[in-house]
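User:
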Amino acid sequence: MAKLGQLKNATKSRLCALWQKYSPHTQKLKQLNFATIKTFAIQYKWRILLVLIALYAGSKTYDYFFPAADKARGPITVSTMVVEKRDVPLIIEATGTIVSNSIVDIRPMITNTVAKIFVKDGQEVKAGDLLFQLDDRNDKANYEKLKALADDAQAQYLRAKELVAKNFISKAGLDTSSANAKSALSAAKAAEVQLSFDYIKSPIDGRAGIVNVFPGSLVQASNVVSTATSSTSSVGAMVTITQLNPINVQFVIPEKDIPTLLENQLDGEPLKVRVTVGDSSKKVYQGTVLVIDNQVDPSIAAVRVKAQIPNDDMTLLPGQFAQVSLVASDLKDALFVPSQAVVINPRGKFVYTLDKDGKAVLNPVKVVYEYQGSSVITGIQAGDKVVVEGKQNLRPGSKTREAKSSNVPSETPRASATTPSASDKK
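Assistant: Predicted structure:
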């Protein structure tokens, strides 16, 4: 370095001597005074300013892209972590809606009036529980009449069988009696079915909604129930039964993540989900995926997924907004660091590591995915010390001293709905 400096000084001296000897403007330069320089500066002030700005910008650009590694400065205090290999679950996050596992609108099968109501607003009911009784007087009378005719026809048939055995009537008469008995029995069964329409029962276990009819209300077989309270009229079901436990959550997954879901589904293990509703700090519901839809919605480039979660305390209701975390797969032997350790500049993404002498080394990396302050990266090795804090003052080759050291982050990173697909991970 000393020889290089001597050579530089000798060259400058030689060039100055040649300039003074051969330049035709040497004498003019000697004649320059303050007034001449001032006039020149005023005349060419903008050009001079632009030249100075260009020189300054060029100097800063050179220092940025080619920082001096051997500048005399003290060690920079940094905090680091030792990178380790771990299996990291790839979790896709999405937003969804709570939906009922089963929901039934109770509507009448016949036109009749409501005689009795056995259900209250919000009541828990079981499958087979009687909800409403319609006016059954006419249907019951009709059934009893047809039942009596069927019993009589059956008795006539049995008597005909005895007479045929004694050759009192022909076999044709027996066949006619048999047909009459079957016809009467069928009519009685049809009347029994018609009578059953007057007794409306719950087809599922669940919770009843608001009852929209009252004793004496007319209900129609057109599946429409007209109700009126004060001056407000509405059209709907007699009541709606909603199954709340277990309950489902429906959400969508981006098209690019479908291969990851299907690959994991082929392993036979059901996909797991974590669901939070409202304030995520209150309660987390664990569940499993029921079905992945068999087609992609081209309008949103996503596939619908339905999962089931327990609702023992009945705190979840259909229509609520939910946040869903779906465990799609695992990244084997992944290296992950805090996202704040990743340096982003025009040339890409980097992390600073420390060599055996404690000097900073700039390493280009690729971020596989990032979530909640943690990033899974490639481009470094397990056991490397990665600078987490203090990297803003570092340059390649900078000397460092460690303030504190820690191992891997306390939480395993989880991927959001924008995480890469299976092909990106590979």
